[in-house]
Design goal:
Elements: E1 2-5, E2 20-23, E3 26-32, H1 47-64, E4 72-79, H2 85-92, E5 103-108, E6 118-125
Parallel strand pairs: 4-5
Antiparallel strand pairs: 1-2, 2-3, 3-6, 4-6
Helix pairs in contact: 1-2
């Protein structure tokens, strides 16, 4: 049976979706953008600051789902500008080691919600 995952430690949904859903041991995390979960405002700064907030938001949802970055199987990363790839990777690699990193796709998109620089979604499994 599908379970809805929700936490106040990550931004609430800004549309008709949930932070995550799970089925049996799998967890499907919606894309996170760099919103502060308390103020629901975009984090100031460049792609590095925004990526850190995105990853912290994902971490909060993973924890609520009884999971962690160690259990992430796949991410999809969206950048508003591929020139930000190196800076994005520097922060992203602080959350995933190369030896145990999940599968990943990174794509450049024309625009992201609220005109942010980065969005990341994930598929993981529960502990």
């Amino acid at each position: 049976m599908k379970e809805i995952i929700s936490t106040t430690k990550a931004p609430s949904a800004i549309g008709p979706y949930n932070q995550a859903t799970s089925f049996e041991k799998l967890v499907f995390l919606s894309g996170q953008i760099p919103l502060d979960p308390q103020s629901m405002e975009i984090i100031e700064g460049g792609v590095s600051e925004q990526t850190k907030q995105v990853m912290e938001n994902l971490k909060a949802v993973l924890e609520e789902a009884n999971s962690s970055f160690d259990n992430v199987l796949k991410t999809t990363c969206y950048l508003s500008d591929m020139d930000n790839f190196v800076a994005f990777n520097e922060v992203y690699s602080q959350y995933f080691t190369a030896e145990d990193a999940p599968a990943r796709a990174t794509v450049a998109v024309k625009t992201l919600p609220k005109n942010v620089l980065v969005e990341v979604d994930a598929i993981a499994f529960k502990n």
